[in-house]
């Protein structure tokens, strides 16, 4: 952390910089278009190809923390090794904000249920927000889907009962696999674990005791647990009302409300009402929000603790991180 050019903040006693390097597009995901995804997937041909982009960005901007979500993919293994090589070449430590999927005995399908709960809370405003969301459209394109596919999904969502499916109660968490995924990073500095959206399942199933056991297991290893969700307006209030002990949240936050569900207003209200630290993801909305506007919204208007930013080139890095430094410095000078 000593090499960081960004201010250091504390979450539950663990220190991270206010700006963290995201994992996109190293995982072949850009949130812009399928064509651009493919360009990056072709670009990566091993860890060294990732180091060639990662190393100068880390060196130029003093980035000392990175997002890491391990999967079984080749790109994931390359990214882990690229981080290791970059640290060795620069003689710096890059702390990881680690996250994993939630391994279970079978995969629960939660999307339609989340749609139903969101519509119940926000009605047509949610439906329009979801359908017109740029990242929803991007995912539709990536699956080669159509407007009819969105219509079918929405109808199924509206037909879904408000009570969680009874079969969810028999889905078991695979703790052995969870431990194995965390073991991959025993040689890294992992100050914070921030779950991905797969952990929402235990909340939607109202299995709060099970979630607390998962949180404790992860905390025993890393110390701090942030709950990740794209549906802050649904998930955060449920967690807070149930009294589940988490240290904060990882969720999309951006000036245009992109991928903030059920609506931007409800997501922001949930963040404020929880009163816990938040690490913002998708601050640029997949490249659709200008960096200056993005960081003013996150750091000035909402006073979010930290954010993760995916960078695809040195040019993007120059514009994005220069804006972040300017906004943060202006904020500090006003205090």
SSE pattern, N- to C-terminal: EEEHHEHEHHHHHEHHEHEHEHEH
Mean pLDDT: 95
CATH superfamily: NADP-dependent oxidoreductase domain
The separation of the N and C termini measures: 23 Å
CATH class: Alpha Beta
Query: How large a portion of the residues is in β-strands, by DSSP E?
Result: 5-15%
Q: In oligomeric terms, what are we looking at? A: single chain
CATH architecture annotation: Alpha-Beta Barrel
Please tell me what the overall shape is: globular
Write the layout of secondary structure elements.
Elements: E1 8-11, E2 14-17, E3 19-21, H1 34-43, H2 47-61, E4 65-68, H3 74-90, E5 95-98, H4 111-122, H5 124-132, H6 134-142, H7 147-159, H8 175-183, E6 192-194, H9 200-204, H10 208-222, E7 225-228, H11 232-242, E8 248-252, H12 264-274, E9 278-281, H13 291-301, E10 306-309, H14 314-334
Parallel strand pairs: 3-10, 4-5, 5-6, 6-7, 7-8, 8-9, 9-10
Antiparallel strand pairs: 1-2
Helix pairs in contact: 2-3, 4-5, 4-7, 11-12, 13-14
Give the gist of this structure.
The chain is of the alpha/beta class and about 325 residues long.
């Amino acid at each position: 952390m000593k090499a960081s050019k960004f201010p250091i903040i504390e979450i539950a006693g663990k220190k991270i910089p206010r700006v963290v390097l995201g994992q996109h597009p190293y995982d072949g995901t850009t949130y812009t278009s399928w064509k651009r995804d493919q360009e990056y997937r072709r670009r990566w041909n091993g860890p060294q190809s990732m180091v060639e982009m990662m190393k100068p960005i880390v060196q130029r901007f003093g980035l000392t923390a990175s997002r890491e979500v391990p999967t079984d993919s080749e790109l994931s293994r390359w990214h882990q090794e690229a981080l290791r090589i970059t640290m060795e070449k620069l003689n710096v430590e890059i702390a990881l904000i680690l996250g994993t999927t939630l391994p279970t005995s079978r995969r629960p399908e939660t999307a339609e249920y989340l749609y139903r709960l969101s519509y119940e809370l926000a009605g047509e405003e949610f439906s329009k927000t979801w359908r017109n969301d740029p990242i929803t459209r991007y995912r539709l394109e990536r699956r080669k889907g159509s407007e009819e596919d969105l219509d079918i999904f929405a109808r199924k969502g509206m037909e879904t009962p408000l009570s969680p499916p009874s079969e969810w109660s028999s889905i078991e968490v695979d703790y052995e696999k969870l431990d194995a995924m965390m073991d991959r990073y025993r040689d890294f500095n992992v100050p914070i674990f921030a779950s991905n959206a797969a952990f929402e399942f235990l909340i939607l199933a109202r299995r709060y005791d099970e979630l607390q056991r998962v949180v404790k297991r992860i905390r025993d290893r890393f110390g701090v647990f942030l709950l990740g969700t794209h549906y802050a307006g649904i998930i955060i209030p449920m967690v807070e009302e149930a009294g589940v002990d988490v240290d904060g949240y990882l969720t999309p936050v951006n000036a245009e409300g992109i991928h903030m569900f059920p609506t931007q207003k409800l997501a922001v209200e949930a963040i404020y009402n929880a009163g816990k630290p938040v690490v913002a993801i998708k601050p640029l909305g997949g490249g659709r929000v200008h960096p200056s506007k993005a960081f003013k919204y996150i750091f000035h208007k909402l006073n979010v603790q930290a954010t993760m930013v995916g960078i695809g080139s040195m040019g993007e890095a120059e514009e994005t991180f220069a804006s972040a430094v300017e906004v943060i410095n202006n904020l500090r000078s006003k205090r």
